[in-house]
Amino acid sequence: MAIRKYLTGTGLIGTLTSGYALLRGADGQRFTWRTALAWVSWGITLSLTIGTIIDIRNASRGRTVSDDSPISGKEGKYFSERAAERSGRR
Q1: How many whole angstroms from its chain centre is CA 55?
Q2: Residue among 43, 47, 76 at smallest CA distance from 59
Q3: How many CB atoms lie within 10 A of CB 42?
Q4: What span, in angstroms and rounded, lies between the C-alpha atoms of 90 and 88?
Q5: H-helix or E-strand spanning residue 62
Q6: Are 36 and 26 in contact, with CB atoms under 8 Å apart?
Q7: For a Cys staple, 55 with which of 7, 9, 43, 69, CB 3.0–4.6 Å?
Q8: Residue pLDDT tens, the chain, 90 long
Q9: Does residue 78 contact residue 55 with C-beta atoms inside 8 Å?
Q10: What is the pTM of this model?
Q11: Distance (Å) of CA 57 to CA 19, 37, 60
């Protein structure tokens, strides 16, 4: 049930949708440097999305978040007493 907040996030949905569009657009086309650049860009977007999900999960459990995270300084917004109790940190 708790994983739902990560799976329905707009960042993940947008990343998966753009990956699906790239995959459908690649059907029957030659692989060029522009195609490679599009896939590299999508991979970077996916990794940033996963990193943000990990940071939100850590912040919700009361763990530290790195200074370069988009949620740095806003950890209190994501902190959950219930999640902190489940992870054994309080």
Answers
A1: 9
A2: 76
A3: 17
A4: 7
A5: none
A6: no
A7: 69
A8: 466 666 667 788 899 999 999 999 888 788 899 999 999 999 999 998 888 888 888 787 777 777 777 777 777 777 766 655 666 655
A9: no
A10: 0.73
A11: 24, 30, 5
